[in-house]
Amino acid sequence: MKFSRGNEFASVRPLLELLQTDLPIIQAPMAGTSSPALAATVSNAGALGSLGVGAVDAAGARKMIADFRARSARSLHVNVFCHQPPRSDAAREAAWIERLRPEFTRLGAEPPRQLTEIYQSFVTDKNMLDLFLDAKPTVVSFHFGVPPETTLRALREAGITTAASATSLNEAQIAERAGIQAIVAQGYEAGGHRGIFDPNAHDDRLGTVALTRLLVKKLTVPVIAAGGVMDGAGIAAMLQLGASGVQMGTAFIGCPESAADAGFRAALASDAAFHTTMTRVISGRPARCLPNKFTALGRDVDFAVIPEYPIAYDAGKALNAAGKSRNEAGYGAQWAGQGAPMARSLPAAELIGTLVGEI
Question: Residue 332's closest CA among 271, 265, 251, 286?
Fold first, then answer.
């Protein structure tokens, strides 16, 4: 399956060359939800399949890449987190545990005794870099910032394409100056973690349309629109604005190949899809989620009392595990964007074919 629209969307061609794909569609690298089976199916259909490996170590990432390659010889995109390493605050973390204790008690469980940094930022993870240089995925992308210049140079010299999320023109220009080859314009509509470099800085909350058009006019590298794009009409609209491609996450959650659990799938198919909310309480960073019991806890919480990301996520994951042990799915990180009501539960290859037909 190939993308052939003559010269109507001339901006697409440079991105297709960078990604080594037939279609300007990227399945978002949703950590915990994207799977090797999903990524391989998407890539085999001519788009770009992706794996979110920011929440696993190098050994875990190596296994995921191997699982993908057992299913596909096509392009692979892997994504990592470039957040600043967190500063532990024992008093704040202890107070957060006590704040969540009643929820654990309702579930018949004990909260963690202390919270830890549950995964390492890519900016300090040499093992992950060494894995990429050895495994050579087609694309490595970054969320929450960009890694040091030496890291980017090593990836480029290995023939790996680099991309980075940006929520503003300033972030996009930082990434472009660093040598990043494509920018993902993450609108405020997007599901999952907000890619803002500094979570405590002012956020203009630009939507996908405004941000995409702004970056297209101001940057020289390809721009990939992300946030609220769920069907072929949305893809065509973003390309008409000058985007070189789109990144779609929520659209793929309902695919049988995704790793979304039954509770997540049920929530996505419910009225909750119409009411996504931005929350920090689950992980410590702002992220768009389906409303559930966990997001309700954050309605009146001062951000200053939440431990830093990803330390807060240690408590979040423990609470979700306690809930699932009691068949309660309402404490999950059910990340989803504002386009969630348009999600379709189609096999990934069928979804890709449908999107192309709609374009």
Answer: 265
